[in-house]
Amino acid sequence: MKNGAKWSLRSKTKSSASAPGTSPVINQKSKKGQRKGARSRNHTLANSMPAVHIRTQDMLSPLERQFLDAAEKGNRPTLEACLQQRSRIPLNINAIDAMGRTAIEIAVDNENLEIVQMLLMEPDVRIGNALLCAIREGVYELAEALVNHPSITKEMLGEGWAKYLDPSETATSEYSSDISPVILAAHLNHSCEICEEERISDGLHRSLKRINTFRALASPAWISLTSSDPILSAFKLSRELQKRAKVEDEFKVFHRSIPSVIR
């Protein structure tokens, strides 16, 4: 994943966490891409009352209504047919439904990766709140696909998020504009699996971990409690530390200082 660290999100399973200050989300079991129960919109961390920003259906063209309905149902052929008519009939791919959701946000809400990937291929699609929705849902594949979109930069994931959002996206968002994707991931306790793996496999980390382990093993209290012959164990440990000091030259000062604790 480009543009920063990958979040440790679940794959194809629901996340039970919900952002502080928002209404609890009751996850409903549903087939992939199928419509789930309606979720209340416009809740911010600062205000538990939803903002009033409802767009009536008569503000949408017939093609836009068909487009959003197909996104809700996960009907790819209909979506493709709607997109093919754009050359003849105006179609705003970022049009919002009565709940303030765009087609891509609806697809993310329904965890329909196939529809999301298809919509991401459109040059004028806006990610907007769909990324926050993917993080909230906890679906790693969706979050990765959205973050990898060319319109999303590393800066947008943090402090630049508020500048990226349109006023309409801010008004229809469940979160206030200061809640960036990174902040929301932290609120939901999504850690970074790849970063953790790299940290554990890092040579410096292993060396420091080994030094701390030797320090613990060199403790007189530890040796006396765990060894039947503390003196022999102390000599063996001292010899091992001298060998390690030759192998890891950059840490030889530490390795040579540890035996002094045993003496």
From TrEMBL:
<dbReference type="GO" id="GO:0070679">
    <property type="term" value="F:inositol 1,4,5 trisphosphate binding"/>
</dbReference>
<dbReference type="InterPro" id="IPR002153">
    <property type="entry name" value="TRPC_channel"/>
</dbReference>
<dbReference type="GO" id="GO:0015279">
    <property type="term" value="F:store-operated calcium channel activity"/>
</dbReference>
<protein>
    <recommendedName>
        <fullName>Transient receptor ion channel domain-containing protein</fullName>
    </recommendedName>
</protein>
<keyword id="KW-0407">Ion channel</keyword>
<dbReference type="Pfam" id="PF08344">
    <property type="entry name" value="TRP_2"/>
</dbReference>
<dbReference type="InterPro" id="IPR002110">
    <property type="entry name" value="Ankyrin_rpt"/>
</dbReference>
<feature type="region of interest" description="Disordered">
    <location>
        <begin position="1"/>
        <end position="48"/>
    </location>
</feature>
<keyword id="KW-0677">Repeat</keyword>
<dbReference type="GO" id="GO:0005886">
    <property type="term" value="C:plasma membrane"/>
</dbReference>
<feature type="compositionally biased region" description="Polar residues">
    <location>
        <begin position="14"/>
        <end position="28"/>
    </location>
</feature>
<keyword id="KW-0813">Transport</keyword>
<dbReference type="Pfam" id="PF00023">
    <property type="entry name" value="Ank"/>
</dbReference>
<dbReference type="GO" id="GO:0007338">
    <property type="term" value="P:single fertilization"/>
</dbReference>
<feature type="domain" description="Transient receptor ion channel">
    <location>
        <begin position="190"/>
        <end position="252"/>
    </location>
</feature>
<dbReference type="GO" id="GO:0051480">
    <property type="term" value="P:regulation of cytosolic calcium ion concentration"/>
</dbReference>
<dbReference type="InterPro" id="IPR036770">
    <property type="entry name" value="Ankyrin_rpt-contain_sf"/>
</dbReference>
<feature type="compositionally biased region" description="Basic residues">
    <location>
        <begin position="29"/>
        <end position="42"/>
    </location>
</feature>
<dbReference type="GO" id="GO:0034703">
    <property type="term" value="C:cation channel complex"/>
</dbReference>
<keyword id="KW-0406">Ion transport</keyword>
<dbReference type="InterPro" id="IPR013555">
    <property type="entry name" value="TRP_dom"/>
</dbReference>
